[in-house]
Design brief:
The chain is α+β, with helices and mostly antiparallel strands. The chain is built from six helices and eight strands. The chain has helices at about 10-35, 55, 85-95, 110-135, 150-160, 190-200; strands at about 40, 45-50, 65-75, 75-85, 135-140, 145-150, 165-175, 180-190. The longest helix is centred in the N-terminal third of the chain and has 26 residues, at about 10-35. The chain is globular.
């Protein structure tokens, strides 16, 4: 699989299956943490070239909470979980037991709760991927930043494009305590990791 060669529809089907299993595990883990019912819709999964990310992320001046997770072990790369401010307040408030309107986004406790929730969701997806492939996947504690989409795109083109020219996009919609919110993952795997990933799943690029 050479750099510049796009992932195929067959590989996308495999990723969708992993996303579905990961969503179910994330719902179970969050329900145990929050002691309430958590529903996660069937994830929307796409493979998006870097040059087309602006169409998904929207207005360059829009602000997002960006949680950055590094991947190590048999699979290397970066995962970013993006949340608009209102969605971030909803997610963090569920763990703090507050109304989203009461949340101060600069509050360290809120930011810590946001990291914890995203860490659980990320872990569910990565563990599903690990179980299906037998590969060891370690992930870092999320780091949190608040930035404009334009700055984030610049970062992707400068830093990420060195080893990946497309992103795996997974949109996740959750319902917690009758409150709906959505966020999405952008997964960037290096080329050797992609080879390992699809080889272990029994699929080889032609």
């Amino acid at each position: 699989m050479d750099k510049g060669k796009r992932l195929s529809l067959t590989s996308l089907d495999l990723l969708k299956e992993i996303g579905t299993i990961g969503a179910g595990r994330a719902a179970t883990a969050l329900a145990e943490l929050l002691n309430c019912k958590v529903e996660i819709s069937l994830p929307e999964t796409k493979i998006v070239p870097l040059e087309s990310l602006d169409r998904i992320l929207g207005n360059p001046e829009d602000i997002f909470f960006v949680l950055d997770i590094g991947l190590e072990g048999d699979i290397g790369g970066r995962t970013f979980f993006l949340l608009p401010p209102n969605e971030a307040k909803i997610l963090g408030s569920t763990l703090l037991g507050k109304n989203p309107q009461e949340i101060d986004t600069d509050d360290l406790l809120f930011q810590s709760s946001l990291k914890e929730m995203v860490n659980i969701v990320t872990g569910a997806y990565m563990n599903a991927l690990s179980d299906m492939t037998g590969l060891t996947i370690m992930y870092s504690v999320p780091s949190l930043a608040i930035d404009m989409i334009g700055a984030l795109l610049d970062f992707f083109f400068i830093q990420i494009a060195q080893y990946s020219d497309e992103a795996i996009f997974i949109k996740t919609e959750l319902k917690v305590k009758n409150i709906n919110f959505a966020g999405f993952f952008l997964l960037f795997f290096d080329l050797e990791s992609l080879r390992k990933l699809f080889s272990t799943l029994g699929y080889k690029e032609a």
